[in-house]
Specification:
Blueprint lengths: L3 E5 L6 H8 L17 E8 L2 E8 L7 H18 L2 E7 L6 H11 L5 E6 L4 H6 L11 E3 L8 H11 L1
Parallel strand pairs: 1-3, 1-4, 4-5, 5-6
Antiparallel strand pairs: 2-3
Helix pairs in contact: 2-3
Guanosine-5'-diphosphate binds next to helix 1.
Keywords: GTP-binding, Nucleotide-binding, Repeat, Ribosome biogenesis
Subunit structure: Associates with the 50S ribosomal subunit.
Protein name: GTPase Der
Length: about 160
């Protein structure tokens, strides 16, 4: 299917929460693509009349830190191949971690559009904390709270323009 949006990022940044918000009240198409579905959730979403598929990555990552890193790298590389737009989710509570920096390094080489979404921006103080994410070297970022939905409208407005 065309118009594929992949959500990438290290564990615990809020990818699945955001994914579930995007596919809310939509039929999830889980397990429809062979081979890669065990660690990836596929869903359908729509915004401003534009339909798109969403991939939630990294659902079943477990193991040591080393396995984590290799697996996240694999997930990001898959997403780069598969998606039309990549949403790189990071977490304002934690700031930029070494793993975030690794992912950013991969994404800086990508010619497809990459949107940085700083998640868990639950209040205006966290809005200020988010400025450090300019240091990822991926340009402008969006601030969102996947849990409440705050900020997600602006992100989606920009997203569907890229599809
Ligand atoms: P994933 O591992 O990247 O898929 O992250 P999850 O979606 O499983 O979320 C990890 C944790 O972050 C959970 O405890 C969520 O409740 C929490 N979380 C997700 N979104 C938000 C948010 O907008 N604000 C806050 N404060 N916590 C959030
Ligand atoms: Mg998850």
């Amino acid at each position: 299917m065309n118009n594929i949006v992949a959500i990438v990022g290290r564990p615990n940044v809020g990818k699945s929460t955001f994914f579930n918000r995007l596919i809310q009240r939509r039929e999830a198409i889980v397990d429809s693509v062979s081979g890669v579905t065990r660690d990836r959730n596929y869903g359908k979403s729509e915004w401003n009349g534009k339909e798109f598929s969403v991939i939630d990555t990294g659902g079943y990552i477990k193991g040591s830190d080393d396995i984590f890193e290799a697996e996240i790298r694999r997930q990001v590389e898959l997403a780069i191949d598969e998606a039309d737009v990549i949403i790189f989710l990071v977490d304002v509570e934690e700031g930029i971690t070494p793993m975030d920096a690794e992912v950013a390094k991969l994404l800086r080489k990508v010619t497809k559009p990459v949107m940085v979404a700083v998640n868990k921006v639950d209040n205006s103080m966290r809005e200020k904390d988010a400025v450090e994410f300019y240091n990822l070297g991926l340009g402008e970022y969006f601030t969102i709270a996947g849990m409440s939905g705050s900020g997600t409208g602006d992100l989606l407005d920009a997203l569907v323009k890229l599809l």
